[in-house]
Structures are given as C-alpha cells and as structure tokens.
Amino acid sequence: MKELALKYGCNPNQKPSRIFMEEGELPIEVLNGRPGYINFLDALNSWQLVKELKAATGLPSAASFKHVSPAGAAVGLPLSDTLKKIYFVDDILGLDDSPIACAYARARGADRMSSYGDFVALSDTCDATTATILKREVSDGVIAPDYTEEALQILCEKRKGTYNVIRIDPAYQPAPVERKQVFGITFEQGRNEIRLDDPALFENIPTANKTFTEDARRDLIIALITLKYTQSNSVCYVKDGQAIGIGAGQQSRIHCTRLAGSKADIWWLRQHPKVMALPFVDGIRRADRDNTIDVYIGEEHDDVLRDGTWQQFFKEKPEVLTREEKAAWIAKNSGVALGSDDFFPFGDNIERAHKSGVEYIAQAGGSVRDDHVIMTCDKYGIAMAFTGVRLFHH
C-alpha cells in the first residue's frame, strides 16, 4: 500500500488528507480503527522515540503522546507497590511478568492528566497484559511492531470496535533526507540521526561533582531521547527509568523548567500518604478521580473539599494537604536527572530544578552565562555534563 486516505487533516475543514510514500510501500498496517492525521503524527513520532529508547537501553520502552509531544516515556523496569497504586495498575494480573506492560504503566501514569486521550507507542510486541491496561484508559490508539492474538482481540473491542491499532515494520528505515511543506514552500534537511547513548556526550563535566551513577546516565539518556521528539523549547525530568515531568513548546527555557518541575512535583506528591489514602467514593470514574487528585494537590484544593462538593468524590472529607506538608514532602525527592534540548542561559533554571530533587543534568552548554550555571550547580553539588548537542524539534 503506497497511500492511505484520511478523514481530514489537523482540523475537519482541512481536506483532502492522506499519508503516502513517494517511493516504496507504507511501513504500517492499520489493523483496526481509522487513524487520523494527528494520530499518525503522534504514532510515527512516538514510534521513533521508543525504538531509540530500546536501542539505547536494551529495555522494552513505551511512550504516551499528545499533540506530537510525549506526555510520558519510560523503560520496562519493575514497578514498586507504591507506583502500582498511584498508576492504578495494582489489580493488573501478570504485570510483574511483562516488561512492556510495566513500561506503558510508567509512561501513562507519570502525568495522567496530560496522557488522557493519548496515542501509545510500544517498542515490543503488545501482549495481553499491556492491552488490558490500554483497554480501560481513555486513549486514541497504539502503534507497535506486533500484537499477540489475545492482545489484538482485547484492543479491537475497545471503543465499540473503533480503537486505532497500527502495526509498523520494525525494520523500516526512512530516507536520510526529510522534507515538509509550510505555506507552499518545501523545507529539506538531513534527519536527526544523532546517537544519544554515546559515552562521549558525558565526558565534558565542568562541575565540581563529576560523578554520574549508572542509573543517572541511563536516566539522562532517557531524558535526551525524549527531548529529541518533544516540541521545543523543552526540558525533561527523569527518575528510575521514566519521565516524571516534561515541559514542551515553551518560548522561554525557565518556563520549560518550571512547567516540567511542577509536573515532577505532582508525580512525587501523588505518593504522599495523604494522597494515597484519599477515600474515593465507590464507582468514581477514572478521569474524575485523576482530576480530583490534581486539584487536591494544588492550591485550589477547596474546589473539591468545600462542603456540598467533597461528597461527590469522597466517602468522608479528607484533610487538606497543607503547603508546609507539600514542601516537606517535595524536599525528600532526590536522584532526579534533568535534560534540556539546548543550553540553560541562566542559573535560575538550576535553582528551580534543585527544588524538585535534581542531582544530575545534561545540557548542550555554550551560554555566555555558563559560568553562572556551573556555579549554581556547584552550590548544590549537582553533576552536570555539557553534551554540545542541541535537540530542537519542530
């Protein structure tokens, strides 16, 4: 198949719409559903991300994409009981035996608000355990190199049989030059084929602390590969093999750092005993529960705790998670890795990153204020590598 007609483009008024190959056959097969223009943008970008993560780490990998940027990305490490609970997969049978299911649970669970209605990419064959998680989440579709028979049956029943399931040829390699059109003008560039697991990227360490643990290097590689497929400017916080905060598409880098840092803080706060013990009413919808947790953690907590409202969500009225309690809990986070798709221009980015437990940083370097950034890292004992690599993506 050389081309596939689509219902419409980014918006319903944008017709006609299709995907096609100028030479050869499309490397994808639609097994179920009818993916749209944005679905394919998410699918093909997310597939590249997980394919690179798998190649770099040797671990099954997954990504949760929304509007051509990852909401989450992770490798298939085992989940602790705490993570199983906050990701709402503690009832999934066989999870411990499925690294690809663990990868998706992590990618989906880190930022559940952003992952709502996601498009999913899996580096490995989708098994029944992964499909079981997918079936109960609000999601637009999935792309993977293959599906077990049981998994495909589960997915084809989702959304009354309309769930988008795409199989991609894992051996497909695109041409080394890529093109796109904007306003009738064709842009052309070489594909960004840089290898982000190259040890040389971590050789230039200008900070006093020059020690990167093996886990820290892995997490920094995950951050950089995630950023390679995130709309710029972008910053990514990673811990224990998964992105915990992604700030995408901001015009100012400090805003990226703040946005991603606030997401990382929310991920950490969801593990606070008060949050984990919230007494939700029976039968609450998953989206309502996720939104309620987000509001409860934030400064607008009264929106779900005021009399006459809390009864919609809780069996009994929870205590407020105070600002002091939140600050004390966030201060316990540590060992976080931070990647940036270009240099940090000022030390304020480091100040903000430190507040969310960042101890390791990989960034391009090359700012006229590198000395101030280095000094701020040294102030907190942060190890930072200048990769010399910019990862803008548009």
Question: How does this structure look, described?
Answer:
The chain is of the alpha/beta class and 394 residues long. It is 35% helix and 20% strand. It is built from 14 helices and 15 strands. The chain has helices at 37-57, 81-86, 99-109, 112-115, 128-136, 149-156, 214-228, 253-269, 273-276, 286-297, 302-305, 323-330, 348-355, 370-380, and strands at 3-5, 18-20, 28-32, 61-66, 69-75, 118-122, 139-144, 164-168, 177-182, 185-190, 234-239, 242-248, 336-340, 358-363, 383-386. Strands 3-8-7-6-4-5 form a six-stranded mixed sheet. Strand 7 (139-144), helix 6 and strand 8 (164-168) form a beta-alpha-beta unit. The relative contact order is 0.11. The model has no long low-confidence stretch (mean pLDDT 96).
